[in-house]
Write a structure and sequence with these properties.
The complex is a heterodimer. Chain A is about 40% helix and about 5% strand. Chain A is mostly helical. In chain A, strand 5 and strand 6 (about 225-230) form a beta hairpin. The longest helix of chain A has 25 residues, at about 1-25. By secondary structure, chain B is mostly beta strands. In chain B, about 0% of the residues lie in helices and about 50% in strands. Chain B contains no helices and 9 strands. The chains are: A mainly alpha, B mainly beta. The interface between A and B is medium-sized, with 12 and 17 residues.
Amino acid sequence: MMTVRLAAVVWVLLGCALQASAQPASQAGPSSEVNTSKITPSPSPSTPGAPGDRKPGYAYMAPSTQALQDDDSQNPAFLWVQEGRRRFDAACVACHSVASLRGVAARYPAWDAALAQPVTLNARINLCQTRHVKAPAWAPESDGLLSLETFVAHQSRGLPVQPPAQDPRMASALQQGQQLYAQRLGQLNLSCAQCHDAAAGGRLGGSTVPQAHPTGYPQYRLQWQGVGSLQRRLRHCMSGVRAEPYAWGSAELTALETYLMQRAAGMPLETPAVRP
Amino acid sequence: MATLRTLIGLVGPAGPVALDPSNKPAAQVRAGSVLQLRVSAQHPMETGYRRSGAGDLLPRNLLRHMECRFNGELVFAADLHAAVSANPYLAFDFKVPAVAQAEGALTISWAGDQGVQHTETVLLAVTSVAGPA
């Protein structure tokens, strides 16, 4: 039984590797789908590939899934946006206006002076919850936190990702994130870059491997039948390579998110995205 | 849990419009026109056949029935079963009655397992045939 399962894993990996290596040779045109930043060093290590080569996961989806995301009256994530609005109106309007939220999500993760560390958007919302609302912090992926984060990030839909690259305090997180992105993990001994840079556009089983630009979080995944955060996605990938996922809100996940947002700088935010 | 989170939308000639329940009309519709209504509800639609990680049978938790009425008259009704996905989405056509009325109340109600009962009412301003959408 175990041998059969191991053999299946080897086949999947072999298929993946074969496709990745065969693609640039066999396809002259669409090979731009493959991010070549691992092969050709890009001028700035924090923005691999020319902007034109970058594609959001949206570009790899079936037209029916794209239609689901495009139409707000069909996009199921709006159930969370609506709930986030209700919670925002109940607890947050004492200090914040809806208009002031525009562009906020595009600038995260950002530095928190009191904690002296970078924080993600959902960590910032949770800090507000404990510091100003004086309520207990939400658990990771809890309904209140996800709805509020979805509502807040939705206010930046269409705006380009603008991570605080000029902030020197973010430099070490950015560097750590970049290093983690390239670090092999788990029993399958794979790094993020091996799939999402070298084999992006290829197939893993029945799914297309996207370039991993986190432009639509929190997003509705048909597989999850609900909305989830970028951390849930990252932890999911780590279980996929049979590594022990970093803890919710850990410095490692924040660093990875910092790097991924820098890598996606300039791409428009889609929140709330729908993904298969 | 007794209530649900729902979304109600309407597709008219000008495209989709979200309808928010409140005491003033959420949209203008033309008497006699045919529109598409879209409703969805946030719900796990647990089948009753699955087991948790610990091996216990997860109790069935389904939305069983949904109906839509316009001024009390039935427009659309559906019975939902275990094969319907989580967060069910239903779209159906609705003909605004041709009889002249200034306003109409669209009522969407849901009923389900574990005592779920939820009703939402959206007001529509009805214009005569010559008016906008």
